[in-house]
Input
Amino acid sequence: VQEPEEKKIALELLETERAYVNRLHLLDQVFYTELMKEAKTRKTVPEEVVKMIFSNISSIYQFHSEFFLPELQKRMEDWNCNPRIGDVIQKLAPFLKMYGEYVKNFDKAVELIIAWSEKSPAFQELVADIQKRKVCANLTLQHHMLEPVQRIPRYELLLKDYVRKLPPESPDRGDADKALEMIFMVAKHSNAAIAEMERLQNLWGVYQRLGLEDDIVDPSNQLIKEGPIQKVSTRNDSTSEKYLFLFNNMLLYCVPKVIQVGAEFQVHLRMDVDGMKVQELKDTQFPHTFLVSGKQRTLQLQAR
Output
């Protein structure tokens, strides 16, 4: 007898969940536990660092191994008399918000692993030793750590497929639809957390290049565009190399520093976006030029 499509997908969910719990076990009970023991006894790496690397992996592991996997297993054993997984996934969804913290911390964790592998030979040796074990399947710690980051999108795909294949009269119809909606919201929530983190990281990078001018550093700013530009001097018909940063609220007109120690640019002028006008010029001598005029002053600029 051919298994119904939706059951095949539910079984795939169970299989991947089993493999996933093994991966979480490796991260929490092997890597984290052994590195922590090393940190406590031999002080080769600060305990704080190990905690920062693994973030809240213990909670994630416990949730999946003690709750979600057993529930899913029970469901699949009773499938013939009770063909449904929607209700179990609804219970799962709110807990997936725990991933926000892990995902947000991921880049930092990888940086710490690299930094401490250079700083502490004992740390590097222990990581390498665990990576050589059969259970690691020749993959690095970083690779295993990526798995929780990819898990929520995987749930989303499997569940979408499951809902698509459900016959209209299935008893799981309502629950599965609702579960998918919940998972979708959580996935969006963690994507937003990643996007926000990236925005702040990029913004910080820009502030460093500008020499951290106090009145410019503001976490709510959004960088829209940046790039080199030529400043046209009508007095002596020449151009000079400048650099612009356009934020949502201001335009920074900068000069690249010759000696790049610390900051890369010096801010020469700050123009408020509020009340700013841009006007294209038809200048045969200087093509692609335009005027930017603000409350502060007017600049004649030439793009490439």
Q: What stands out?
A: Residues 5-190 form a domain with the Dbl Homology Domain; Chain A fold (CATH 1.20.900.10). The chain has two domains: 5-190, 204-302. The beta strands are 223-233, 238-247, 250-256, 265-272, 277-280, 289-293, 298-302.
